[in-house]
Amino acid sequence: MKIKFLFVSLMIGQIAFAQINNFTISGKIKGLESSNIYLIIFDDAFKNGYRRDTIAVNKESFHYKGTIDKLIYASISPNMDRVVKKISSGFFPAKSSSLQLFVFPGANIKISGRITDFVDAYPSGDIVNNDFAKLNKKIYPLLNRSVNISVKIANKLVTDHVLIKKMKDTAAMLDKQVISIKEKFVRENSSSVAAIWLLSDMMIRSQVSNNLATDLFSKMNKEKLVDISYYTEVAKRVSGFSLTAAGKTVPDINSINTYTGDKFELSSLRGKYVLLDFWGTWCGPCIAGMPKMKEYLDKYNDKMEIVGVASESDKGERWRKFLDGKPQYQWHHVLSTKDEDYILKFSVAGFPTKIIVDSAGKIVGRFVGENDEIYKKLDELLR
Questions:
Q1: What is the pTM of this model?
Q2: Domains of the chain (ranges plus CATH)?
Q3: Alpha-carbon gap, residue 121 to 181, rounded angstroms
Q4: Tens digit of each residue's pLDDT (9 = 90 or more) over 305-317
Q5: Rounded-to-10 torsion of CA 381, 331, 203, 197
Q6: 212 φ, ψ to 5°?
Q7: For residues 252 and 307, is the Cβ–Cβ distance under 8 A?
Q8: Could you tell me which residues are beta bridge partners of residue 72?
Q9: Alpha helices by DSSP H, the chain
Q10: For the chain: N or C, fewer Cβ within 10 A?
């Protein structure tokens, strides 16, 4: 009898746990013409860093029930051509082409709005998504205007150079306005989950300076947000700013997640200058810069080493395949992983990021993007 009672209790507990982890999304979006929309949940726990679920649409309305075990950022793609910002070489990945939201256990999210040439629709139903909607209602129209200008220029729908200059200036003004709204939102919503996620996103996109990010983070409500993963990520990035400043001893990289499978320790390269290259196979400028790095490695082969630190979303399968086919680029290679997150540890936002370390292990400088300044500095140091 006791065994039966225990079994029933366990079953009730499992059912309750499943119910707690349920979340729902429902709504109606005017102008939604597709038969299916896609919910994309972003988390490193999923293969490739996200999970995509299909939601059926009936006469602009939809209802979805899923499970989740924590609060996670997500987006909904309307699966409609008219919101895609197409150009001859592909498309611009505009945020205004999708709907942003947060999913979490117990959430009952309502979606409303319309679709024009962008997704003018927003979530509600809880304080997290209400906050997010408050922000995105302000910035989505501006983002859409800016990207539409870029599309017109890229597709050569405008040829007058004076007009193109004015259009680019307008787009830059709109982008600056969006950044200003974001900064104000973070500053005025110190206890908001949406705000800490936004600060993390702005840091990743290099939309906020290190000093400003540190200042904004210092004002966030730690007591309310400390258990949110995005708070932890921002804390690590802010710590990384100070740990990787010029003149500081470089943090060690100690890993077995290497291309060769052998253990690698950055400290073992003391006595030579080191170029740390934070890159990814998905990053065009990163790949484009490799021939120049190889040229400089050959030029100063007795004085310097290169360590590639890759950020990948597929457990390193593309990374390994790429290096298999590029023997000329097989310097030291380490894969940044969830357990050994060197992207966060070194507070890397833009790609490529290159950090020069001197022979004593001191950081000389950090360079974001592929440009000649890196190589001028190497010549200055090594010539």
A1: 0.78
A2: 2-122 (2.60.40), 254-382 (3.40.30.10)
A3: 19
A4: 999 999 987 778 8
A5: -160
A6: -70, -40
A7: no
A8: 103
A9: 2-20, 127-154, 161-188, 193-204, 210-218, 222-225, 229-243, 284-288, 290-299, 317-324, 342-345, 372-382
A10: N
